[in-house]
Amino acid sequence: MAMRVSKSVIGVDVAKIELVTYQADSDLLALIPNEKPAIKRWLKTLPRPAA
User: Fold this and answer.
1) Fewer CB within 10 Å of terminal CB in the chain, N or C?
2) pLDDT at residue 50 in the model
């Protein structure tokens, strides 16, 4: 049996102070500080194998 593969669509607008992210599958818009610890935390929330 074939395995189903789902794809997530994630958009990121990068600015000096913050990142604005959008996840289409959950219709989620988020603002993330443009700082390494905050970006790492956000990456851990993404569906695998994204990060």
Assistant:
1) N
2) 54
- Please report whether residue 5 resides in a domain: no
Match 């599958």 to its residue by tokens: 25
> What domain count does the chain have?
1
Please report, rounded to a whole number, the percentage of residues in the chain having pLDDT higher than 70.
84
CA distances from 13 to 3, 4, 10, 19, 37 (A): 32, 30, 10, 6, 18
* Structural domain span for residue 36: 10-45
Q: Give the helix/strand (H/E) hosting 36.
A: helix 36-45
Selection from 12, 4, 5, 7 nearest residue 34 by Cα:
12
Long-range contact pairs involving 16-22 (C-beta distance under 8 Å, separation at least 24): none
